[in-house]
């Protein structure tokens, strides 16, 4: 029923509710704008500093990858970012060059509940160096470049591959409403040991609760998660 068809008192109440709703929405938009700017600033500062400080480790890893098996040092894979936008996500190559071709034959051995993502603890496609750098999360370090150019953030849902997104439900697609990140709630809570459905729930929780303080807490929690390597394979 429109305001014109209500009693004066009802119109005042409806108008007050509309004004309060608009004010709350404006505050949320303002918060999101300030938060986004501060988050981007932190992403730039941390990614730049990390790339410079970790340069010796990056170079040593590149040499080790190149010496163990033929193929490129870096591996790029199309991932889906915010609002479904595809981008090239970078990693140190941890598998043999025919890994993608062999994935189909290993699909029945997928150990990730739900089947949307693919994970195997004893994946035969992974090289010896690859197994180490995965366990230590060193293979993810080139994604600091993705953060630096603005395709990713330090904190946010992990970016999925197109084949995974094709299987998403409407609920799953909520993960794509924010910029993807290097670390997130489930990354510090068990990583690949957490079933896909629970990963989605934790990502959605992050999206609704995200704040600068939560991002800082997750970054700090990432350190022991990486050192303990729980769920990393």
Largest sheet: 2 strands, antiparallel
What is the H-and-E element order? HHEEHHHEHEHH
Overall geometry comes to globular
Oligomer designation? single chain
Number of helices: 8
Output the strand order for the largest sheet. Answer: 1-2
Number of E strands: 4
- Calculate the mean pLDDT score and round it: 81
Q: Tell me the domain tally.
A: 1
Low-confidence stretches: 1-27
Distance between the termini: 58 Å
Output the radius of gyration: 22 Å
Residues in β-strands, percent: 5-15%
Q: Helices and strands: which structural class? A: mainly alpha
The portion of residues assigned to helices is 40-55%
Describe the structure.
By secondary structure, this protein is mainly alpha-helical. The protein has one domain. Helix content is 50%, strand content 9%. It contains eight helices and four strands, in the order ααββαααβαβαα. It has a two-stranded antiparallel sheet. The chain has a two-stranded parallel ribbon with strand order 3-4. Strand 1 and strand 2 form a beta hairpin. It starts with 7 loop residues before the first helix and ends in a 5-residue tail after the last helix. It holds the Pfam family Bac_transf. It comes from Congregibacter litoralis KT71. It is found in: Membrane. GO terms for molecular function: phosphotransferase activity, for other substituted phosphate groups.
Give a topology summary.
Elements: H1 8-53, H2 55-68, E1 74-80, E2 86-92, H3 99-106, H4 128-135, H5 143-148, E3 153-155, H6 162-165, E4 181-183, H7 196-209, H8 212-228
Helix pairs in contact: 2-4
Membrane topology: Multi-pass membrane protein
Subcellular location: Membrane
Family: Belongs to the bacterial sugar transferase family.
